[in-house]
Amino acid sequence: MTILSGLMIGMFLAALDQTIVSTAIRTIADDLHGLSQQAWTTTAYLITSTIATPLYGKLSDMHGRKPYFLAAISIFVTGSIACTFATSMIELAAFRAFQGLGAGGLMSLALAIIGDIVPPRERARYQGYILAVFATSSVLGPLVGGFLAGQSTILGIAGWRWVFLVNVPIGMVALVVVAKVLNVPHTRRNHRIDWWGAVTIALGVVPLLLVAEQGQTWGWLSGRSLACYVIGVAGVVAWILVERRMGDAALIPMRLFGNKVFSQTSVLSVLVGMGMFGGMLMIPQYLQIVKGASPTKSGLLMLPLMLGMMSASIATGQLTARTGRYKIFPVIGTALLVVAMLLFHFEVQWNTPLMETMVFMLLFGIGLGLTMQTLTLSVQNAVPAKDMGVATASSTFFRQLGATAGTAIFLSVLFSTVGDKINNAFTAAAKTPQFQQALNNPAVAGKAGNQPVVQMIQHPGSSGGGASVLSDSSFIQKLDDVFAAPFKQGFADSMHLVFLLGAGVMVLAFVLVLFIKEVPLRSVSGIQAQAQAAAAAMEKAAAKEADAS
């Protein structure tokens, strides 16, 4: 429990950052005049954390978890301080990329250490503590992020900058606690460090994620896109060759993919990561841009999703501990995620009552809660204890890979289609008597807040309306309802396409999880399993020596 307290603070730091930024990103992007560039700040963070994750897992298997967990916290805090001083979305993306180098180790190493000290069957009993961290961060993150983003200044610093600055005191506490209490026994294993594996995996992943994020803008078959395809595929091939050559010293040993549960769960993690981030990103956008909720209010409105995720996760942990069975949970969870995304696609319009939307959010959260923790448990249980770190990091890596790809693709689809959707909505709305009456009423058309629409109508070829909303959407809330409706409808229509894509991804996940074999959960911890394996190896060697003599 003492060790767990240190891990929980580190996990809280990582989990809080994932949720605190989501409700503030729209305000940040508007202030830095780059709403359509927000994908860069998210994908930069996810790319670096994704690439760093397996490296942390491998190095911690070799040298112990503690020094790398401390390093991850230190890098994360330093990156958070840098983000506070960003003056543009591109600059913020660069600082978020550095922050991601630390984030890659926080969650995966915490989960690996839990795998070291707690048997898989018993691990579910500790999920209550771990999930208390996620629940607290899930509830506090959107609220705190929304509150801070909603303040113009705090102590002379822009409110949204505190979204990153708040990580500093939490990180300092985490450093002190972890340094003091995290003393897990470790037997040092000398292996070569697979630096070439890290380089080639970056060479393979980054160009493919880059084209996923920019493909709509560049053109999927443009010269730049084709160059990214070629470099990415070459990088992936080179990575596989390097990992085969490195054997057990590889970043992700290829022999692990010979384990059917590991390989299938890795693909499933990619799909779940894509679906999870697709929903988690779109819902705050919908609440703030379409429904006009403040950042703080949108955080409160996300509570059904968070409570659904928390309650389902706790119930899953308790049932797994009692029965030792776990496969049924991701089966039900992925099915619920499909249903929730289809409901968002078909039922949620720009004028849908919030209560109906919140019911769908609850369903989405329950689906996530039934699915997420079971994937890590399945991977940890399926591999040898000596691979606990690299297996846990690999599970996190593939989930982050899916999340990064999902973020890039879904935001790219949203912002590449929203301009046309808004223009189509305006074309239809402009023919209505209500719109024409408002436009010809000097008291309405003369309002300063309505000028963006008036200018767009008077100068159809200008950069207003559908184009200007991509850099700053805050003016939508200043418009009269009749003028704001086409903008909101355009955003809602674009989000429908994103939710449909997300539902398609989760259908694939549902089908795949049906074929994953359920392996009985071990009753010993990772450290105990390693000790037993070492003892068995010594007995075998002694018996062999006795036979030889």
UniProtKB/TrEMBL annotation:
Q: Which residues form the Major facilitator superfamily (MFS) profile domain?
A: 3-521
- Quote any Pfam family the record assigns: MFS_1
Q: Which residues are listed as membrane-spanning?
A: 39-56, 68-90, 96-117, 129-150, 162-183, 195-212, 218-241, 261-287, 299-321, 328-346, 358-379, 497-516
Q: How does it sit in the membrane?
A: Multi-pass membrane protein
> Is the Transcription regulation keyword given for this protein?
no
Q: Which domain of life is it from?
A: Bacteria
Q: What protein is this chain from?
A: MDR family MFS transporter
